C-alpha cells in the first residue's frame, strides 16, 4: 500500500497549474476545478486520489519482480526522472526515444549487446590492436550507445509498465505501449488526452517542482513494492528452513518408534512358535504317560 498523498504538499509544489484555457483538451474537463487568469486549475483532490491509485498499482508490479520503464525526454524532467529511476533500480529513457524501442525490442537488445562487446574488446586487449582511427570510431559508437541505451542495459525483456511525463511529447512511446498492451502510467496536463493512459495523474507536467513531487512519490511506491518482495522472499526461506528442520527431527523418532513397536506379522510368528512348543510338550507328556502305564502292566 503506497503512502497517503497530502493535498497541501501538491498545492505547495504547484501541481494544480494547468495550461492556457485555449490549449485545453475537453477530455480533461472532469479533472479541472476552475479557470483563473486564462489558466485552468486542476482539482488536487482528484490528483491525490489518482496518485494513490497509481502508486498502489506500481507497488504491486514491483512486488511481482517486473520492470517499470520511466520515460521523460523534456529538459526540466530529465535529471529528476534519471535520479528517481536509479533510486528505484528501474530502467529509464531521458534522451531521444529510440523508434521501435518496444515494438522492435530484439534490435534494441542487439545494440545493447554491441555495447557489451566493445567493453569486452577493451578488457581482452583487442581494442589496442586496432588503428587510431578505428579506435576513435569505436569510442564514438560506444558513447552514442551509452547516451541513448545505457540506462536500459539491464532490461533483458519488455517492461511490465511505462511511466511517462508529458504524454503529448512522448506520443510515440505511448503508441508502442498501446500496441503491445503494456499498462501506461502518466502525468497528464490539461492539454493532453487522458484516454490514452491506463493510470493518469492529473498534474502540471511542465514545472520541475511538480514533476519532482509526483515522480518521487512514484519511485517511493516502487521501492516499497520491492522491499515487500524481499521480505516475502526472506520469510519463505525461513519457513522452508523450519520445515526441513522439523522433517529431520521427526525422521529418527519415527525410526525408533518403528523399531520399538513390533509388526503384526512378527506377533503372529511368535504366537505360532509358542503354540508349536505347547503341542510338542503335550505330545511328550502323552508318550511318557503311555510308557508308565505299559511298565505298570508288565
TrEMBL record:
Residues 227-298 are annotated as: Disordered. Pfam families: Ribosomal_S2. Keywords: Ribonucleoprotein, Ribosomal protein. PROSITE patterns: RIBOSOMAL_S2_1 (PS00962), RIBOSOMAL_S2_2 (PS00963). The keyword Ribosomal protein applies. One of its GO terms (molecular function) is structural constituent of ribosome. CDD domains: RPS2. GO terms for biological process: translation. The keyword Ribosomal protein applies. GO terms for cellular component: cytosolic small ribosomal subunit. Belongs to the universal ribosomal protein uS2 family. PANTHER family: 30S RIBOSOMAL PROTEIN S2 PROKARYOTIC AND ORGANELLAR (PTHR12534), SMALL RIBOSOMAL SUBUNIT PROTEIN US2M (PTHR12534:SF0). This is Small ribosomal subunit protein uS2. The lineage of its organism: Bacteria, Pseudomonadati, Bacteroidota, Flavobacteriia, Flavobacteriales. The gene is rpsB.
Amino acid at each position: 500500500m503506497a503512502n497517503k498523498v497530502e493535498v497541501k504538499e501538491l498545492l505547495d509544489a504547484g501541481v494544480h497549474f494547468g495550461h492556457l484555457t485555449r490549449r485545453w483538451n475537453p477530455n480533461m474537463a472532469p479533472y479541472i476545478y476552475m479557470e483563473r487568469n486564462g489558466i485552468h486549475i486542476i482539482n488536487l483532490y482528484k490528483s491525490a486520489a489518482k496518485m494513490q491509485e497509481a502508486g498502489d498499482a506500481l507497488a504491486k508490479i514491483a512486488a511481482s519482480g517486473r520492470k517499470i520503464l520511466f520515460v521523460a525526454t523534456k529538459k526540466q524532467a530529465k535529471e529528476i526522472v534519471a535520479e528517481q529511476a536509479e533510486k528505484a533500480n528501474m530502467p529509464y529513457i531521458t534522451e531521444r526515444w529510440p523508434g521501435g524501442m518496444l515494438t522492435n525490442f530484439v534490435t534494441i537488445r542487439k545494440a545493447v549487446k554491441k555495447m557489451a562487446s566493445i567493453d569486452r574488446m577493451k578488457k581482452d586487449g583487442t581494442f589496442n590492436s586496432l588503428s587510431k582511427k578505428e579506435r576513435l570510431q569505436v569510442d564514438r559508437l560506444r558513447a552514442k550507445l551509452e547516451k541513448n541505451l545505457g540506462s536500459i542495459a539491464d532490461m533483458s525483456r519488455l517492461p511490465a509498465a511505462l511511466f511517462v511525463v508529458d504524454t503529448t511529447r512522448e506520443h510515440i512511446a505511448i503508441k508502442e505501449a498501446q500496441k503491445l498492451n503494456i499498462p501506461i502510467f502518466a502525468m497528464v496536463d490539461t492539454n493532453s488526452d487522458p484516454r490514452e493512459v491506463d493510470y493518469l495523474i492529473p498534474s502540471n507536467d511542465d514545472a520541475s517542482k511538480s514533476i519532482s513531487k509526483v515522480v518521487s512519490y512514484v519511485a517511493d511506491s516502487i521501492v516499497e513494492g520491492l522491499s515487500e518482495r524481499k521480505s516475502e522472499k526472506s520469510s519463505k526461506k525461513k519457513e522452508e528452513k523450519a520445515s526441513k528442520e522439523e522433517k529431520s527431527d521427526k525422521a529418527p523418532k519415527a525410526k525408533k518408534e518403528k523399531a520399538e513397536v513390533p509388526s503384526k506379522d512378527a506377533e503372529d510368528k511368535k504366537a505360532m512358535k509358542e503354540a508349536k512348543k505347547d503341542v510338542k510338550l503335550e505330545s511328550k507328556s502323552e508318550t511318557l504317560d503311555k510308557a508308565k502305564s505299559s511298565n505298570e502292566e508288565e
